[in-house]
Amino acid sequence: MTKKCFQMAVILLLSFTSIQAQDKKAKDLLNEVTAKIKSYDNIVIDFKYSLNNAKENINQDSKGNVTMKGNQYVLNFMGVTKIFDGQKTYTIVPEDEEVTVSKVNEKDDAAITPSKMLTFFNSGYKYNMDIVQNVKGRKIQYIKLAPTSTKDQRKEILLGIDVQTKHIYNLIETGKNGTKTTLTVNSFKTNQPLSKNQFTFVASKYPKYYINKLD
């Protein structure tokens, strides 16, 4: 092996070691986020959702909130309320005066639920540390996630994590078609006093609604 080839091999080895160390750092931080999320009895989040596609001239902003306890949740977003009681999802659409009832298999990896949105990164992605930003005095560490499945329509995801609290600050998804969606957490509250029937659908509240049972 020539001296030049040896030097190149050493450089490549050091680069690989650096990447491996960086990936471990990213994994350790993601593990801390997951542990923090699982330590809470419940979580209440207010968020902003933005969708942008410059090519299609699309710019949309929406606000929403979600209350979670285990795999149960109540989500209010774009005028629609979704309640998941642990077995069934109740989608309430006031505009149509309709409630759609469907069963959800929580073990289905393809089923996207609010609770999974806080720990989705634990499988199916390659990841490494990205930039650090100062947001109103908060140190936000970004981790870049790349889906391992070629069928995934997302090119990459940037996950912003508050270094001090280990809470997710925002999530930026870039699609292969150029669409960028950003979910920003405006308020993150934990262990709140919740109603006993917080995740129970009460049909009597919707006497004029059409109940559409899919299962």
From TrEMBL:
Coiled coil: none annotated. SUPFAM superfamilies: Prokaryotic lipoproteins and lipoprotein localization factors. Residues 1-21 form the signal peptide. Gene3D superfamilies: Lipoprotein localisation LolA/LolB/LppX (2.50.20.10). Pfam families: LolA. InterPro entries: LolA/LolB/LppX (IPR029046), OM_lipoprot_carrier_LolA-like (IPR004564). Keywords: Lipoprotein, Signal. This is Outer membrane lipoprotein carrier protein LolA. It comes from Flavobacterium psychroterrae.
